[in-house]
Write a structure and sequence with these properties.
The protein is an alpha+beta fold. The protein is built from 3 helices and 5 strands; from the N terminus they run H-E-H-E-E-H-E-E. Strands 1, 2, 3, 4 and 5 form a 5-stranded antiparallel beta sheet that branches.
Length: about 120
């Protein structure tokens, strides 16, 4: 699958996830979606914010979503487990939907590309 095809699929599936979570009573807002390569390098520095240099955010294949339930901000990875399960169920034969809770980044949702989650 070409990158542009994955980007399109990712965008459609994120919209689907947001609508599904909204229907379950969550309040959703957007966190970081696109991230510059320079920001990735900054995040990857020792002592810097959590992040990886080889991120899917610059490829437009990742987003951090912010969830609230009953007005309460959800901050723990486990708070996003249902969203992660739903996201993973969207995987198809040509792409894998990966939830960041698998690597302690619960609000991260991506489509794997070139071995990167």
């Amino acid at each position: 699958m070409k990158l542009v095809e994955k980007q399109h699929r990712f965008s459609v599936l994120i919209a689907r996830l947001i609508l599904e979570l909204d229907g379950l009573g969550y309040t959703i807002s957007m966190g970081e979606a696109w991230r510059s390569p320079e920001t990735c390098k900054l995040y990857a520095q020792p002592g810097g914010p959590v992040g990886i240099r080889n991120s899917l955010h610059p490829e437009r294949l990742a987003i951090d979503l912010i969830l609230r339930q009953n007005g309460v901000l959800l901050t723990r990875s486990e708070d996003y487990a249902l969203a992660g399960k739903i996201w993973g169920s969207y995987s198809g034969p040509d792409y894998t939907c990966t939830w960041g809770g698998e690597f302690h980044d619960g609000n991260h949702f991506s489509i794997t590309h070139n071995g990167v989650k």
